[in-house]
Every structure is written in C-alpha cells, then in structure tokens.
Design brief:
The chain is of the alpha/beta class. It contains 12 helices and 20 strands.
Length: 433
C-alpha cells in the first residue's frame, strides 16, 4: 500500500456532518494501509462569501490583503477536519500552504506554483500521522507573502503535492460520481466516463467542464500522476484520468462490433458561460497591428481564448478582430486597449458578456469530417446561431448566445449518441464543487 493524496471540495466539507463523513473516509484509507495526505477547500460557499465581504469594504481590494483574507477559509476546513479525525482515534496534523512547502510566484490572486518542498509533510507521514493541507494557497518565493492560486487552486495543490511526494494516485473528491459526457446539472442523461486521457480531459477542462480545472490536469500530465475523480457522497468508482487506460473495459458509449478502427470517439460536450467577447472594430490591415493589440492584453496578464479576424474590406483596408476572455478581466482589457487606440487607429471597441462557449471533445476529429458537419447540424436543428468557431485535433468550439446554451448542449449530446439509457446522473452537492 502506497501514498495517496485525497482532495475534498467545498461541497464535501460544507458543514459539520460533511466534515465527519470525510474524516471517516480518510481514516478508512489509513486503516487500509495507505499513507494519506489530504487537501481541503474552504467550506461550502465560504470563499464567495469572503469575496463579497471584501468588495463591501473595498471595491478594489489590495491583492496582498485579499489573499490573506481568502486563505482563511481553507485554514478553517483543515483545522476542523484534523479535529474530526482525532475524534476517530487517529492522529492528524494540519498545515497551511506555506507550511506544506507550496512555493509560488508573486502574482496575487492567481499565483503559479514554482516548487513544492514538502519536508514537514514527509515528517508527519513518517511519524504515522495523516497530513491535512489547506488547498488554494502558497507562499511567494521572493517576498514570502501568502498567495492564492485562483479558482480550482485546491485541485492544483493536490496534484502538485502528489508529484512532490511520488504518490500512487491523486483522488479528487467532488459532488458527482466522476467525469461525465456533459454537465449532469444541464444534461440529466449524461454518461459517466470510466477512463479519459489527459489530453481529452485537458480540452474538456479548458472548454468549461468544472469537475477538474485545466491547471490541475496540466500538472498531472506533466508529472504523470493518475487522477481518480470520485464523489465523497457515495462509494462508487469514479473516472480515471491518465496517459493510458488502467486495465479498463471499453466504455459503454464507445461503438462496438463493426466500428471502423479510425472512427472518432467522442469524449463529451462542455460549455462555459464565464467568458465575454471583445471586438476591435476598424483595425488597419497591416503587419504589427494584431501584435500591438495582443501585447497590450498580455502585459495586463489577461488570458484569451478564441480569436477570429475578418477578411479586410477592399475599399477601406480595415478589418475587425474578435476574441474571448474571462468576464472578470473584461474591464481591464477594455482599459488596456483604449490606451492603444491612438497608436493602432482602430475605430471602436465592442464588449459582449452575454455569450456561451460550447465544445465537442474527442479523439480522431481531424480525420473525420462528418463530426464537424454533425456538430453544426445539431446546433442548426436546435435553432442556435454560431458567432465564432475554433478547432483543434480533438475539439470543436463555438460561441453562441448565453440564453441558448442549455438547449444547444442537450442537442449536441443527443446527436452524438451520448445520452444514457439507464439511471440519470446524480449531483449530490448542489452547485458546489
């Protein structure tokens, strides 16, 4: 029996009963002979409540103090969980991110992990203890300030610790039984996936699937850490995410029998309503203008997703450039672009935050033109208009109106035969992760 890292999301530790239930599961793993390291998120909606409180005090909280505030949620969870484990007769020690050796850069609110030096965690394990680590946080390498890793940071903390400790597996416990072919809150007939590759999972995560965040999957792929996504509310097996299948049987929704060897295998449909679209209108169509636009965005540390440039009008020599980005970065992006207006000479900026991105993910898409046609036909039959299109070898993404996303996801899911003909997917913890 080896070392296991378990991560529990906010919905799993939302209240005292949830914490006691999680403590029992951890103790069971310890009794089975494992060394156990646990990463916890803040209880329920604690982080959102702290954010709301900060905004009531200051419209634009200082990054350093904002991080000091937000890390309080995970510290509460880790201490309570340690108490619950000790009440079951086992020793547990809790550690903040900095005590656990999670070293980051100095970017507050969305720091990136530079290194993990888990000396104190190893000592705790060698002494026979269960180690509990506050997720989502670390300490900056240069200034030694407390930092936070941004949304989904606890998942990343767990995988980073698993890599540093050479764990056998990183178990991510959430409020659903695994990774599904679509969000079970939207598509009740979504199927659970028994195994999915890092590459497909990365595309789903980047496209809006919230069960795992893309930074967590990137880290796991880089260090080859198998992830097992499970529910903390049931004892059912979940979804394995790894480079190669772990002795799995063919998935229930994979075509069998006379299926062509190179036929595309669809992993799932993801959607994202957290993005906005900016269109730079009337950009001179000459070398360097797009570079100036996106350098201004990059210098403000804003991540962009889809980009489309129209063909320039012959009469004017002007073009429009549209791109999507997180809604939370919209105001900052507009301000940055306004400062370049005189240099570039564009006409105006348009901002639209009532959009949604829908993505179809699966292997073999590039060599199967029927997948693209089927995707667009499904959207057309549902009366959904497409505004932007982006593709990769294993993904097709489109931007539509936000109020059409539910109907669009269900239509695509059905069109590709992903609907389950058995029990509906169960969401145990409401909207929490």
């Amino acid at each position: 029996m080896g070392l296991v890292v378990q991560k529990y999301g906010g919905s799993s530790v939302a209240d005292a009963e949830g914490i006691k239930r999680v403590a029992k599961r951890i103790v069971d793993a310890k009794k089975n002979g494992h060394q156990v390291v646990v990463v916890v998120s803040a209880m329920g909606d604690t982080t959102d409540e702290l954010i709301d409180l900060a905004e009531q005090v200051s419209p634009i909280p200082a990054g350093r103090e904002f991080d000091m505030l937000l890390t309080a949620g995970e510290r509460i969870s880790m201490a309570l969980l340690a108490m619950a484990i000790k009440n079951l007769g086992h020793e547990a020690q809790s550690f903040t991110g900095s005590q656990a050796g999670v070293i980051t850069d100095s970017v507050h609110n969305k720091a990136r992990i530079i290194d993990v030096t888990p000396g104190r965690i190893r000592t705790a394990l060698d002494e026979g203890n269960i180690a509990i680590v506050a997720g989502f946080q670390g300490v900056s390498q240069d200034k030694k300030d407390i930092t936070t890793l941004g949304r989904g940071g606890s998942d990343t903390t767990a995988v980073a610790l698993a890599a540093a400790l050479d764990a056998e597996v990183c178990e991510i416990y959430t409020d659903v039984d695994g990774v599904f072919t679509a969000d079970p809150r939207v598509v009740t007939k979504a199927r659970k996936i028994e195994w999915i590759s890092f590459e497909d999972m990365l595309e789903l995560a980047s496209s809006g699937s919230k069960v795992l965040l893309h930074r967590c999957v990137e880290y796991a792929r880089r260090y080859n850490i198998p992830i097992h996504v499970r529910s903390s509310f049931s004892g059912l097996p979940g979804t394995w995410v790894s480079h190669e299948p772990l002795n799995r049987e063919p998935l229930s929704h994979e075509p069998q029998g006379d299926r062509k060897v190179e036929q595309a295998i669809i992993s799932g449909v993801a959607h994202d309503t957290s993005e906005a679209k900016i269109t730079v209108v009337g950009v001179p169509d000459k070398p360097g203008e797009a570079a100036t636009i996106f350098r201004a965005i990059a210098d403000n540390e804003i991540n962009i997703d889809m980009i489309v440039q129209n063909v320039s009008a012959a009469a004017t020599g002007l073009t429009d450039i549209s791109f999507t980005l997180p809604k939370s970065e919209g105001r900052k992006a507009i301000d940055a672009l306004e400062k370049t207006k005189a240099k570039i000479g564009f006409d105006s900026l348009r901002y639209d935050d009532q959009i949604a991105k829908i993505s179809l993910v699966g292997a073999g898409m590039k060599t199967n033109p029927g997948v693209t046609a089927g995707f667009f036909e499904a959207l057309s039959n549902a009366g959904v208009n497409i505004e932007l299109i982006s593709t990769s070898e294993i993904r097709i993404s489109v931007v539509t109106r936000a109020d059409e996303v539910t109907e669009a996801v269900r239509a695509v899911h059905t069109a590709f035969g992903l609907d389950s003909d058995s029990d509906e997917a169960v969401v145990y913890g409401g909207t929490g992760r």
